[in-house]
Amino acid sequence: MPSAPSSSPSLTEYESALDMAQSLAKRITGHLSQAIAERGEASLAVSGGSTPRGLYAELAQVAIDWSRVFIVLVDERWVNPNEEGSNETFVRQSLICDQAAGARFVGLKTADPAPTQGLQEVENRLASVPYPFDAVILGMGEDGHTASWFPYAQGLKEATATHGTKVAAIEAIQSKVTGPLTQRITLTRSALSSAREIYLLLAGEDKKRAWNEAARPGPAEEMPIRFLLGDPNSPIQTHYVP
Asked: Is the model's pTM score more than 0.90?
């Protein structure tokens, strides 16, 4: 059973959210530019939430050839764009604008009534995206979830398998973290773990305490970020601002 390593993974701390955003924007756009030069295209997987907002604002100001960059959601609540909770709406407003307005966006929501019914359509959408991802931006909840890999959720086994499909349907156990929107669709561990770089962004003492707990040995199903923190082959790095 996956668990965190006996010694804590490394964590880079910044003095301010702006410092973190500017530093990571420079690194990520460097990865994307290198990928464009090498293979003509690049891919970036991004998450919702408040923590990466500043990073997205910085990325959107960098003048690279965004028309050659695919931006893919890491996960999505099963709500339509422009409805409350939509990660697609958040990313379009905060990242796919200004210099990055021409990026090729790949959303995860379909017109189907449930995420289980939309999986094949989303797999088809993702077939055009260059893999591996050149960079992945993740967050983490105080419950230890990342993407939509929620503790003991229905679909968690499929979402965290080391081989298989690129997306999985999730029915989370409702909590203060999930809120009422428990139906989700998420990129899988199989899709993410081969990425060239995975940036886990944390903000605030509560998230740091949760990360410290997740970095200790324990069942990965209890704190699913452990599927990545405990994987010696995962290129995950944690970046934190108090």
From this structure: yes
